[in-house]
Inverse folding.
């Protein structure tokens, strides 16, 4: 299968009757992605505004193609070497060239299979992206094999919000606690600005302390134009964890589903024009990274594999890889139409085989086709 140039970079295209999706050759980023609802094309994922620009040579590949969702191994900036390994930001999986393996058509399902042989920590990662006719859902699987030692990892989905204050309503499954990044996220001397109080803990997205002594609501966005912030929420142990964004005026909900024993926490990267250095230049606005991870914030492998206060509180920030036992990370992203009056998501749960129910705080509920068995089994049902 030959890739084509999409938004300035080489990418493979696959589609179903409900989803059109591109995956970049460099970094394996998903985007652009369009979900098809009757006569509407819904495109919830962000695309960096500099896609077709000439950037300085030292710009990391992941920034050149930044879009949609991508898999990070190891997750984070990785500014500190770990046992002699010097990983690029968010790992080779987000920066290097993936190889096409197969496009598999089985009944209503289409699966794109890519692979990447890693050098810094020798091993292999297999990426499988599956779309199924009749479902506004993306099933993403990454299988890590041949590696030994501690590793952090995660998905880096980025949602673009309409340019209206509070146009999206953000919620997560129940969490143990949340915390603002304990160290400064941005440096004003370098042209970066943050609004939240470093290290502040919280138990609701609706009340988080700010650096000026007040509080703010992270569950309604866009907000706080001119600032960049990062927080982590540590999921409670349960069979299903989720994140959701309701767009009431646009009448749909975006959701992401995972097994929290595999992806233990969610990082919210709140990017609203607070970076005034290249290539951001104050123009990356109305974006929220909703990033499901097993990692110590966004700092990297050394910080995630070493002793840290999340581990001390029982929150996994890395796993021990065994070359004889491949690690399988399964993840679901999708959208569904909503009725008028549907507000913040209160719960997502199985309804019946192959169907989930999404319930709002107002009591309104919808059902949509999703195969939750994929999160533990890795192969979505074709029915």
């Amino acid at each position: 299968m030959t890739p084509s140039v999409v938004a300035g970079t080489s990418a493979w295209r696959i589609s179903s009757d409900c989803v059109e999706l591109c995956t970049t050759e460099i970094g394996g980023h998903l985007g652009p992605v369009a979900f098809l609802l009757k006569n509407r094309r819904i495109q919830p994922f962000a695309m960096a505004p500099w896609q077709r620009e000439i950037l300085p040579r030292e710009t990391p590949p992941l920034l050149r193609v930044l879009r949609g969702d991508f898999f990070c191994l190891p997750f984070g900036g990785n500014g500190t070497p770990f046992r002699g390994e010097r990983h690029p930001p968010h790992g080779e999986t987000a920066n290097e060239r993936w190889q096409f393996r197969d496009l598999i058509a089985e009944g209503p399902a289409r699966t794109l299979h890519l692979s990447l042989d890693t050098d810094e920590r020798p091993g292999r990662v297999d990426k499988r992206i599956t779309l199924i006719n009749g479902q506004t859902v993306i099933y993403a699987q990454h299988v890590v094999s041949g590696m030994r030692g501690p590793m952090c990892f995660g998905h880096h989905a980025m949602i673009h919000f309409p340019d209206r204050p509070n146009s999206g309503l953000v919620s997560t499954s129940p969490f143990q606690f949340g915390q603002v990044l304990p160290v400064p996220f941005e440096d004003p001397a370098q042209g970066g600005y943050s609004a939240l109080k470093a290290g502040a803990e919280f138990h609701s997205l609706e009340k988080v302390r700010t650096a000026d002594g007040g509080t703010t609501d992270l569950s309604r966005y866009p907000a706080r134009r001119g600032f960049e912030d990062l927080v982590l929420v540590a999921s409670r142990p349960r069979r299903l964890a989720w994140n959701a964004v309701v767009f009431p005026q646009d009448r749909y909900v975006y959701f992401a589903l995972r097994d929290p024993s595999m992806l233990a926490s969610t990082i919210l990267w709140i990017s609203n024009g607070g970076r005034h250095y290249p290539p951001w230049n104050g123009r990356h606005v109305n974006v929220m990274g909703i990033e499901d991870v097993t990692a110590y914030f966004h700092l990297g492998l050394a910080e995630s594999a070493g002793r840290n206060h999340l581990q001390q509180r029982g929150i996994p920030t890395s796993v021990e890889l065994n070359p004889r036992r491949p690690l399988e990370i399964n993840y679901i992203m999708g959208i569904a139409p909503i009725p008028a009056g549907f507000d913040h998501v209160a719960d997502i749960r199985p309804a019946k085989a192959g169907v989930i129910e999404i319930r709002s705080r107002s009591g309104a509920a919808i059902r949509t086709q999703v195969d939750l068995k994929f999160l533990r089994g890795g192969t979505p049902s074709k029915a």
